[in-house]
Amino acid sequence: MTASRRAALKGIDAVTVRAIQDSAGRIHERVRRRAKPEMQFPVRALSNVRYDNKEGFFEIGRSKKVRSLSVNTVKTFAQTLRMMVLSKELVETNDFATKRDAYYQSKNWDEARFDEQTESDAVMDDIEAMCSVRGVSREQLRFIPDEHGGAVAGELIVHDADLETGKEEHIDCTRFGSGAYSIPSLTEHLRFETKAKFILCIETGGMFQRLQSHKYWKKVDCILISMAGVPTRATRRFVRRLADQCKIPVFAFVDCDPYGISNIYRTLKVGSGNAAHINQFFCVPQASFLGVTPQDIIDYKLPTHPLKDVDIKRAKDAIKNDPFFQIHKEWAKAMEALLKMGVRAEQQALAKWGLNYVIEKYLPAKLKHPENFLP
Amino acid sequence: MTASRRAALKGIDAVTVRAIQDSAGRIHERVRRRAKPEMQFPVRALSNVRYDNKEGFFEIGRSKKVRSLSVNTVKTFAQTLRMMVLSKELVETNDFATKRDAYYQSKNWDEARFDEQTESDAVMDDIEAMCSVRGVSREQLRFIPDEHGGAVAGELIVHDADLETGKEEHIDCTRFGSGAYSIPSLTEHLRFETKAKFILCIETGGMFQRLQSHKYWKKVDCILISMAGVPTRATRRFVRRLADQCKIPVFAFVDCDPYGISNIYRTLKVGSGNAAHINQFFCVPQASFLGVTPQDIIDYKLPTHPLKDVDIKRAKDAIKNDPFFQIHKEWAKAMEALLKMGVRAEQQALAKWGLNYVIEKYLPAKLKHPENFLP
User: Fold this and answer.
1) Most B CBs within 10 Å: which of A5, A148, A208, as the mutation test of the B interface?
2) How far is A178 from chain B (nearest CA, A)?
3) What is the Rg, in whole angstroms, of the alpha carbon atoms belonging to chain B?
4) Strand B191-193, strand B305-306: pairing
């Protein structure tokens, strides 16, 4: 690890520890003054969300809830403090814990132990929300998700430092054969080296495997990412940091249905409504929508399925209530077109014209006009 | 790619093509003789399964169903033949298709097109079962699953050949920092180079990340595999081929509950009951069960949860109906002990004693006595 890298890492960790110490310090100060200690958390609910197109993500509003120490809150209060101590220890020992690890760790906290993991998850969410207003993410607090990361292939070298020795590995994502690089749970410490022109985020594992096995990334100089449905936190953060650091655009290639558009793509780009306090870390504002678009269904004569009731409900909800679709009129129009057509199409529907039609015709035609991608 | 490698690959593909040609040839022969053409498939049902401890997997029995050409079967008959043609083309062009790809390909088969993917899936299952009696797997037919593969880290070099150029990549799984190697959908063409003493298959992504980030594989000379729940076909096949080729044992490290034992572990080791025609390819008979065992719950004073109704039902079913538990008395006893204790424990419950207790105490103690692992 280079000295500047070590300094930078220290910098992130220093901010995290300071955020914890400040919160704890305020409580300590009130106790010292014999005032009732309290903690403040931003309210995590759709009602406390705003979407600013310039910022590029769903942002949490200013509503706060206050937890004062009382007979009723004493246990949660103590648990929150213990959880903050755990986070500080994790940063200091350069380690990490899953939600589940944290729950089991508490079994040694005597009376402050959690009885159910739902309780410890809620406390962790509170701390995450509290620290998010200082720009500190859950991953910086060293709490990691217990989900598989996406797969990566293409023109990218990832720099990763050994947890214990600090020695740096350079991981060349062109060298995985038909396999791929699997994104770790914690991506804050990664650095990137690439000459790729764009990042292509792909919904299905099958399509990713096709593009990867045929080394499509070599033909067009890009990085392929398999999202496997709604991308996990680790995948979103990885794409965001990669796109930020290397200043390259992100194109999404998903199914043409309300789920692919409003859940997968919208979550990738601006985040989700009920986790607004974390969107600043996980959104990918530089993303745009390559396809499959409603217009593609017509242009490419794709085989379709009728929209299900749940699709129709999701599309109508998005048009009516989702700030993302209200701000981007093109998207509201596209959704309305889809509703009118009454059908949906999967990205693999392109296989009707040949298994590698997607490589030989569809993607080249699309990539000639990125200015036409939906926002 | 070496000449011997090219020859071997050709060998596998030659067997596949011959299996398809023979089946088609028998039909053609009957047509030529003006007899009614028919196809034979093994019956895929629990009633047609047997478990031989020596063979090491659930094997399909001898019951067959016959599909004769008639007005009622003509469409399925034609579809089955077209699907066999597709498979042959995939082998010949060194390509592959997901179930979904195959469904969409059929949209160009005029009257033989499938209306629903469930129909094309069923035909693919039939062909798979038909070819399985000749030792040819679905992956050899070049139909790949559309699921994410498991993650791999540790003392292993994977040899993979480029689909188009045949150039071989050597993928060193010790060099991925906190990330990992993501297993491709198709693993038949991979070769392995390792001095590892064993393969450790891990249920949760969180535990895998802990062992990987702390480079546990270096301490004990092993290969870590993240199964992320019930292992996918690609993961099972990868472990099986790796263990066969390198002659090393496989240890499973999963939650101590009826799901972890009878679904995850039992599926890994002997396969599943309702897909008996494929178990010969996907089972890992050399697997044994490191933990978490019911006895571990007592020995390590692990925090537990009460068994849910579904757990109790699953455990009772296993003891009563599952040939695996009937043959392995130790397993029936362990399941009964769990039922009597009325609790289950997750592998991350070890975190009660410290996040890295699993690395420092639990695994070293266990690995001293692999002879005590459950079969």
Assistant:
1) A148
2) 6
3) 23
4) unpaired
Rounded to the nearest 5 degrees, what angle is found at the Cα of B19, between the Cα atoms of B145 and B135? 60
What's the DSSP call for residue B230? S
**pTM of this prediction exceeds 0.95:** no
C-alpha distance across the termini of chain A, in Å: 38
User: For B370, how many CA atoms within 13 A lie in the half-sphere containing its CB?
Assistant: 14
Q: Which residues pair with A50 in a beta bridge?
A: A59
Flag if B213 and A158 touch (Cβ within 8 Å): no
Q: Are the C-beta atoms of residues B236 and B149 closer than 8 Å to each other?
A: no
Farthest CA pair distance, chain A: 75
Count, in order, helices (H) and strands (E) of chain A: 16, 17
**DSSP classification of residue A51:** E
Contact check, Cβ <8 Å, A169/B183:
no
Each of the 375 residues of chain B gets a pLDDT tens digit; together they read 455 545 555 788 999 999 999 999 999 999 999 999 998 888 877 677 777 777 777 777 788 888 888 888 899 999 999 999 999 999 998 899 999 999 999 998 999 999 999 999 999 999 998 898 888 999 999 998 877 779 999 999 999 988 778 889 999 999 999 999 999 999 988 999 999 999 999 999 999 999 999 999 999 999 999 998 889 999 999 999 999 999 999 999 999 999 999 999 999 998 876 677 778 888 999 999 999 999 999 999 999 999 999 999 999 999 998 889 989 999 999 999 999 999 999 999 999 999 999 999 999 999 999 999 999
Interface check B184 vs A, CB under 8 A? yes
A154/chain B closest Cα distance in angstroms: 14
Cα A51 to Cα A55: distance, rounded to the nearest angstrom? 8
Residue A85: count of CB within 10 angstroms of its CB? 13
Amino acid identity, position B282? F
- Decide if A362 is catalytic: no
- Decide: A314 and A259 in contact? Cβ < 8 Å: yes
